[in-house]
Design brief:
This protein is an all-alpha fold. It is about 70% helix and about 0% strand.
Length: about 120
């Protein structure tokens, strides 16, 4: 699934760069950071349920999220951990993840349901 998701993101966000997409997906799906299900739950717990649900729902437009919203919902330590895996500044990581995450979650949930945690 991860390879398909990364390929989908590369098609959706060609300017993101293959290495960045691959590292971002690895960081998002890393059990040390909780995986995709954990990221989604943290966003929901952080008041972003409507936004996240738009990414998961089949046939619905993805609502945007900002780097600041992502950082507030996930917590700084989570963003710092992902940034470390990406090798970039946490603020830059939050902005890049905010740009990629709606498409990543959408691509991972084609049937409108979140896959179970690995």
């Amino acid at each position: 699934m991860l390879d398909g998701l990364a390929n989908s993101l590369k098609n959706i966000l060609p300017d993101a760069g293959d290495a960045l997409v691959d590292r971002a997906m690895g960081a998002i799906n890393d059990p040390a950071t909780g995986g995709l299900a954990s990221v989604v739950q943290k966003l929901r717990d952080g008041g972003m349920s409507e936004t996240v649900n738009s990414w998961i729902a089949a046939g619905k437009a993805n609502l945007p999220i900002t780097g600041d919203q992502l950082r507030a919902a996930l917590g700084n330590e989570h963003v710092v951990a992902i940034a470390g895996k990406l090798g970039i500044d946490p603020a830059h990581a939050a902005d890049k993840l905010a740009a990629m995450l709606p498409a990543a979650v959408d691509a991972a949930t084609p049937t409108g349901t979140l896959p179970p945690a690995a």
